[in-house]
TrEMBL record:
GO terms for molecular function: RNA binding. It comes from Pipistrellus kuhlii. WD repeats lie at residues 89-130, 140-174. This is Cleavage stimulation factor 50 kDa subunit. SMART domains: WD40 (SM00320). Gene3D superfamilies: YVTN repeat-like/Quinoprotein amine dehydrogenase.
Length: 262
C-alpha cells in the first residue's frame, strides 16, 4: 500500500482467491486506487502476476509496478495503458522486489531477486545502468534515492545496507552488523531518517532496529521494536522524527521522538 503525497489518493494491492481461473493461469492481482478523503473507489488495474512493489510518479498520473515477473510495468492511471521498455535486455531476470522514483521523477530505481540494482530513465523508460551483484549476488530487498538524487541506499538478504554513488556506480559506505545471527530470510527495507543523518534497518532475528550514522557507518544502540514477529516494512516521515513499522504479528506501530522541554 502506498500514497501519492500531493493528493488524497491511496493505492492498495489485493489478490483475489475467489475468482475461477483458467487452467495454467495464476491468481489475479489488483491495483486498487482509492480517494481516501471521499472514501470512494476510483479505479482498478488487474495484473496476472503477484504484485511485489509499487511507486507513484510525483505527478500522480503514473504508477511503477514490480511483480513476480521480471518485466517492469508503468501504468497510466487515467487511460489504463501499460508501458514497458522497448528493449527486452533492459529487464531483470527474476522477480522485482523494489521500485522507487526519485523526487523529480527523471529517474527511478529497481531491485530484484536476480541480485541487480537497475537505474532507469524516467522519460524514455530505458535502463541507464545496472549494478551487477549489488549485494554479492544476494536478493536486493530495497533501493531508494537520497533527497538530492545523487545516491542510492539499498539493502539485501546479505543483511547489509549500502550507499551507492550514482555518478560512479561505486559503493561509498557499507552498513554492517545487522545480520550477526545469520543471513536474513525475509525482505525488509533500509531507509533514511528525515534528515538523512541516519540509516535504519530492521533486524529480523532480534526484531530490533539497527541504526547507523549515514556518513561514518558508526552503529548506534539497537532499539527493540516491540513486535512479536519479523518486521516486513518500515517507512520514515520525510519531514519529522517519526516512522512506522509493520510486522507479521499483524500490527503496525508508530514511533516518534518527543520534543524535550525545560
Amino acid at each position: 500500500m502506498t500514497t501519492w503525497t500531493k493528493s488524497h489518493v491511496l493505492l492498495s494491492t489485493q489478490r483475489n482467491r475467489s475468482l475461477p481461473l483458467a487452467q495454467g493461469i495464476t491468481l489475479l492481482s489488483y491495483l486498487i486506487i482509492l480517494n481516501h478523503l471521499r472514501k470512494e473507489h476510483s479505479s482498478t488495474f488487474r495484473e496476472a502476476e503477484m504484485l511485489r512493489s509499487i511507486s507513484f510518479h510525483p505527478s500522480g498520473d503514473f504508477i511503477l509496478v514490480g511483480t513476480q515477473h521480471p518485466t517492469l510495468r508503468l501504468y497510466d492511471i487515467n487511460t489504463f495503458q501499460c508501458f514497458v521498455s522497448c528493449n527486452p535486455q533492459d529487464q531483470h531476470t527474476d522477480a522485482i522486489c523494489s521500485v522507487n522514483y526519485n523526487p523529480s521523477a527523471n529517474m527511478y530505481v529497481t531491485g530484484s531477486k536476480d541480485g541487480c540494482i537497475k537505474l532507469w530513465d524516467g522519460v524514455s523508460n530505458r535502463c541507464i545502468t545496472t549494478f551487477e551483484k549489488a549485494h554479492d549476488g544476494a536478493e536486493v530487498c530495497s533501493a531508494i534515492f537520497s533527497k538530492n538524487s545523487k545516491y542510492i541506499l539499498s539493502s539485501g538478504k546479505d543483511s547489509v545496507a549500502k550507499l551507492w554513488e550514482i555518478s560512479t556506480g561505486r559503493t561509498l559506505v557499507r552498513y554492517t552488523g545487522a545480520g550477526l545471527s545469520g543471513r536474513q530470510v525475509h525482505r525488509t527495507q533500509a531507509v533514511f531518517n528525515h534528515t538523512e543523518d541516519y540509516v535504519l534497518l530492521p533486524d529480523e532475528r532480534t526484531i530490533s532496529l539497527c541504526c547507523w550514522d549515514s556518513r561514518t557507518a558508526e552503529r548506534r544502540n539497537l532499539l527493540s521494536l516491540g513486535h512479536n514477529n519479523i518486521v516486513r516494512c518500515i517507512v520514515h516521515s520525510p519531514t519529522n522524527p517519526g516512522f512506522m513499522t509493520c510486522s507479521d504479528d499483524f500490527r503496525a506501530r508508530f514511533w516518534y521522538r518527543r520534543s524535550t522541554t525545560d
